[in-house]
């Protein structure tokens, strides 16, 4: 008898890095892949028959705002084994890691340093350390204005301290602070370059939408990449580019061809979600994006916003209240094609922008499962990765985004790991299904795997995911959540 904890027996093993795609057994021991081969001896205490299923590396989500166990379980049911908060980030980052460890996570976790929270504290003197602080202060103009020299120095010092504590990069919500000057962004990117990490940016407004913007959001990212040498990661390029996606992707492609390190991500939905108090959702600014109040659905009540007056009321009463924003029409072939181009852009990774749960009544017991109907979120929280698999391998038109399964899996696992591994040693053991790598594994049916969450039923878990293991422990088994599983481990950068 071998010293293996278990053997996944007879599945179709796909490892995007080595090119392996064949029927194999996978042995797991002490949280690692111990062996991959045919006819492996039985493990102890038992084997798991996965014949007819795909066995591959667990999905790595670079863009998750979920900090509650219920929301992370939804992500695990979508095949996610590592969920990282990189766009918004946290500060102090050491406290964020400590809270996550105390809570226990079903999946691996990590955080960037938060430019926005650090800015709230150093530019506006607002409390920024409590969980949920960003949403609570999202609409306050005090933190959105230009920073003075002393404030900028303090801001960079705060971010530097978080990087020294293992932050995975610098998250920059630039689109939420329209008064922040381009020079500040260059300084932040310069700090990232000097520290050997990336920035993860929610872009400033595009010039097509706001001609008077301080800088075109897409041009700013690629220009700063060239000026500083920093790795600039362009968050949810689909949702900030709207119907200007082709122009933005062409610009990024030229920057990449010139040698700049600019990477992109996208999620397969036409609607976004954020706090209703965001600067770009002010009634007088909706037309910049071709929106009206009725383009917004206020998540806590499910109401479609009826008028500018009602929008102002909601922004005043609950600025951090989550709102669904209709941007692209998912029923339109032309808009679906735009989404596919974002998802299949060379080097782009799949990332969810998963949102925390909103409760329409008093929150249930935090570990309740299944989630009660009073819990709602954006469907991307529950379905991004399975939706991407469905769209890109089964439903995309030939020659217009359809890809082989291994290629799509790479965008969900290997490519996100490679994006970070230069300064995050733990990622070198993730995103691959090979001996010696972490046993973060997803097992699914390639014919039936699909998202099931919708805007009307946003917390319905994905289908077709049979098993999910995190560090060798089952989080999903036989298609259901393992209630007590908390095997997630922290992922930290290695300070330069």
Written account of the structure:
This protein is α/β, with parallel strands linked by helices and 496 residues long. It has two domains: 6-57 and 431-481, Urease, subunit C, domain 1, CATH 2.30.40.10; 59-428, Alpha-Beta Barrel (TIM Barrel), CATH 3.20.20.140. It is 30% helix and 22% strand. It has 14 helices and 23 strands. The strands form four sheets. Strands 1, 2, 3, 4, 5, 20, 21, 22 and 23 form a nine-stranded mixed β-sheet that branches. An eight-stranded parallel β-sheet has the order 6-7-8-9-10-11-12-17, sandwiched between helices. Helix 6 (182-195) links the parallel strand 9 and strand 10 (198-201). Helix 6 packs across helix 7 and helix 12 (379-395) packs antiparallel against helix 13 (405-412). The longest helix is centred in the last third of the chain and has 17 residues, at 379-395. The protein is globular, with a radius of gyration of 22 Å. The termini are far apart. The model has no long low-confidence stretch (mean pLDDT 95).
């Amino acid at each position: 008898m071998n010293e293996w904890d278990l053997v996944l027996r007879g599945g179709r093993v796909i490892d995007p890095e080595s090119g392996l795609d064949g029927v194999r057994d996978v042995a797991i021991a002490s949280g690692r892949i111990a062996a991959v081969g045919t006819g492996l001896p039985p493990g102890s205490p038992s084997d798991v028959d996965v014949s007819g299923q795909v066995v591959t590396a667990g999905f790595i989500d670079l863009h998750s705002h979920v900090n509650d166990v219920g929301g992370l379980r939804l992500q695990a049911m979508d095949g996610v084994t590592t969920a990282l908060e990189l766009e918004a980030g946290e500060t102090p980052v050491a406290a964020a890691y400590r809270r996550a460890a105390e809570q226990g996570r079903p999946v691996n976790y990590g955080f960037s340093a938060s430019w926005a929270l650090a800015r709230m504290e150093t530019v506006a003197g607002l409390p920024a350390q409590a969980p949920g602080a960003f949403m609570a202060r999202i609409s306050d103009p005090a933190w959105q204005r230009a920073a003075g020299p002393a404030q900028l120095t303090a801001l960079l010092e705060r971010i530097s301290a978080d990087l020294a504590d293992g932050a995975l990069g610098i998250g920059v919500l630039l689109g939420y602070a329209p008064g922040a000057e381009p020079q500040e962004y260059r300084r932040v990117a310069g700090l990232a370059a000097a520290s050997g990490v990336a920035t993860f940016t929610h872009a400033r407004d595009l010039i097509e939408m706001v001609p008077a913007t301080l800088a075109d959001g897409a041009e700013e990212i690629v220009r700063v990449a060239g000026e500083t040498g920093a790795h600039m990661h362009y968050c949810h390029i689909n949702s900030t580019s709207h119907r200007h996606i082709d122009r933005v992707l062409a610009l990024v492609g030229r920057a990449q061809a010139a040698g700049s390190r600019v990477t992109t991500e996208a999620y397969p939905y036409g609607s976004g979600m954020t706090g209703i108090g965001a600067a770009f959702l002010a009634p007088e600014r909706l037309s910049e994006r071709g929106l009206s109040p009725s383009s917004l659905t206020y998540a806590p009540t499910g109401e479609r916003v009826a008028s500018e007056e009602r929008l102002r009321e909601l922004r005043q009463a609950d600025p951090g209240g989550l709102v669904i924003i209709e941007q692209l029409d998912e029923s339109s072939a032309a808009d679906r094609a735009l989404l596919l181009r974002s998802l299949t852009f060379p080097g782009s990774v799949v990332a969810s922008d998963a949102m925390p749960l909103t409760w329409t009544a008093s929150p249930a017991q935090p570990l309740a499962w299944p989630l009660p109907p009073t819990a709602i979120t954006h469907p991307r929280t529950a379905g991004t990765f399975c939706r991407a698999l469905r769209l890109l391998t089964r439903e995309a038109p030939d020659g217009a985004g359809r890809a082989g399964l291994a290629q799509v899996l790479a965008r969900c696992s290997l490519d996100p790991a490679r994006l970070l591994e230069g300064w995050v040693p733990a990622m070198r053991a993730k995103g691959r299904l090979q001996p010696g790598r972490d046993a973060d594994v997803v097992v699914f049916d390639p014919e039936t795997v699909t998202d099931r969450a919708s805007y009307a039923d946003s917390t319905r878990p994905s289908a077709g995911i049979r098993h999910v293991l995190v560090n060798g422990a089952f989080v999903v088994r036989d298609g259901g959540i393992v209630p007590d599983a908390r095997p997630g481990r922290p992922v930290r950068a290695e300070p330069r």
